[in-house]
Amino acid sequence: MEDPAFFCVFPGKQITILPYLCRMLTISQRGNAMPPSPIRKLVPFAEAAKKKGTKVYHLNIGQPDIETPPQILDAVRHADFKVLEYSHSAGNESYRRKLVDYYKKVGIEVDHNQIIITTGGSEAIIFGFMACLDPGDEVIIPEPFYANYNGFAVEAEVVVKPITSSIETGFALPAISEFEKMITPRTKAIVICNPNNPTGYLYSQEEMDTLKQIVIKHNLFLFSDEAYREFAYDGKQISAMQLEGAEQNVILMDTISKRYSACGGRIGAFVTKNKQVLDAAMKFAQARLSPPSFAQILGEAAVDLPENYFDATRAEYLRRRDVLVKRLNAMDGVFCPNPGGAFYAMAKLPIDDSDKFCQWLLESFNHNNATVMLAPATGFYGTKGLGLNEVRLAYVLNVDDLNGAMDCLEAALKVYPGRTK
Q1: What residues contact 260, with CB distance under 8 A and at least 6 apart?
Q2: Which domain CATH number covers 319?
Q3: Is there a contact between 60 and 375 (Cβ–Cβ < 8 Å)?
Q4: What total number of domains does the chain contain?
Q5: Which CA distances in Å does 318 have to 11, 283, 335, 343, 372?
Q6: What digits encode the pLDDT tens for the residues 185-208?
Q7: Both ends of the chain: CA-CA distance in Å?
């Protein structure tokens, strides 16, 4: 059946207009629902401040200043290709076999056929969501959580159900009874990041056992983002892959980005012992053809770094953490729990609105011709209204610059018009 025409009458003329000529080009509901990055949305204000000659201390994003190991960059420089071909959709077998050795060193037993190399950890998360979840399914995530989980959920058309952890407890895992309250017939998975971004919280063995109990009892997937595995300061990182009895429930999502200060490499890994899940994820891997070849060379060379490579890096982050937390807790009205891992801290500030405060720092404040860029915590919560008086800080600058940033923050809090106490 053809679309009915309608008529517009002009003086002396009658013009037929077909409906398709009047349709507007619109973006999808998914495109409208896709959230902007709470971490990057303040970039234009930072750029404007720099144009005015203001030094900006960047504590807003997890881009390490630690030098990328020259050995792994050399491996890329010296790569001898006649043709830059596609790799296997699961990634180069030589790299996957080397990852088996890497995982064995950290207490994880896997086979190379249980690993899919991904374009960054982000693609590993997307593969997990797309392979395991249907539109309308629910995933429980302890909040505050990595903001991009929201975006990945929108892409997969799944529903994030946040379960709130508190800054007063250092963001410890909520009680098992709180998880039980959240579970519905549509609940399909729990997502964790360990050590955590944005809080730096390091889950204990007891907490990991609690998660194992929940996912086995309710037949849920456990997606475990372990991007910061090597950076655990107050205890040992417990991988979800080490939870005996939950092997079929666990999907590990990994990346070289923070581990080797290689964020631009865009190489990650999707790891699971669940063959059905792996086979489904492999279809998505085939649809995007292959992970990047040069970056796989980078990743493979990284596995060959000496075992003591992380000692100096871990010690440097620990030193920075201690300086940051001490400075924050010495400020009037500020509270910052000690993060056990990663290189992030969450702080509670005496402010009315973290979004306004972080923008004000860049637009209207400077201290000795410098200011500091922070990430408003509102973007890390799924529950509306939470995080208004919290910010995330990434201690990815050297100690001198960290102290400079803290000088700026301390001075700013004394004059901020929206200070609450």
Answers
A1: 68, 69, 72, 302, 305
A2: 3.90.1150.10
A3: yes
A4: 2
A5: 80, 41, 19, 8, 21
A6: 999 999 999 999 999 999 999 999
A7: 68
